[in-house]
Amino acid sequence: MGLNAPLPSQFVQWFSGLLHGDLGISVYYAKPVAEIFLQHASTSAVLGSLALAVACAIGLPVGIFSALKSDTWVDHTARIAALSAATTPSFVLGLVLMYLFSIRLGWLPSVGISVAEGGMLPFRSFILPSITLGAPNAAILARLTRSCMMDVMREEYITAARAKGLSEKAVILKHALRASAVPIFTLSSVILGGLVSAAVVTETVFAIPGVGRLISESVLKRDYPVIEGVLLVVAVLYLMINLLTDILNVFLDPRIRYD
Asked: Are 213 and 200 in contact (CB under 8 A)?
């Protein structure tokens, strides 16, 4: 592993291997780190996509409805529910869902993901983890959507759109929601980038063989090449997601220009 060489030589050796896609060799598994990462990446990709879908499916409607019913009991209830979901630790929410839907009702599997026939990952095994991972982010997305929608609904062009006889649905979807798309889309990309770090606890609770659990197990095993390699890949992906978000914001809002 070159650990007998001086630190500058170790860095040069590591960096030169990195340029060729070599992330090092795992101390515990005795395999290339890149190979280990790819074995766990597909599971985390499915879980992250479903968690983001849960966050958007819950957060956007709740935020819009809360903005339209601002300062009513509906709005207050939604805000309290969002605050509760955002502050509930993921391991607590995961254990509660596991107890209700796996132990008590027996509807869904509690832990682990077994590959089905044909190499497909079973969808039922992802339901509870995706809700656990997506619910806190849904609360944050709902609060931002409510705030953006309330600011936009006070604008004069919304009043003009109503005065022209447009339906309330058209006013909300074509004008108000579109004007609020940039901050909502930006937050969604931040949520997607942060799901890997948030998945460490969730994947550990549900015994899911993903990247998050790989990081936690590597820390316990002191497998430093795996920790360094996986965190480096995650950091690069996070930067790429943010860069892609900045580029796509130009298409969502033509007023944005980058010099």
From this structure: yes
State the total domains in the chain: 1
Residue 152 lies inside a defined structural domain of this protein: no
Which residues, in sequence order, are CB contacts of 161 under 8 Å at separation 6+? 170, 171, 175
| Alpha carbon 238 to chain centroid, angstroms | 11
C-alpha to C-alpha distance for 117 and 119, rounded to whole angstroms: 5
Please report whether residue 12 resides in a domain: no
Say which residue, 114 or 244, is predicted with more confidence: 244
Region 235-255: mean pLDDT is 78
71 pLDDT higher than 70? yes
What's the CATH number where 99 sits? 1.10.3720.10
Domain with 37, as residue range(s), is: 29-146+165-252
Residue 118 scores a pLDDT above 60? no
CB 60 within 8 A of CB 184: yes
Pair of tokens at residue 120: 């497909």
Determine, yes or no, domain membership for 157. Answer: no
| Residues 36-47: tens digit of each pLDDT | 888 888 888 888
Calpha distance 85→136 (Å, rounded): 5
The whole-angstrom separation of Cα 133 and Cα 226 is 24
Token pair for 176: 């108000």
Is residue 128 within 8 A of residue 97, CB to CB? The reply is yes
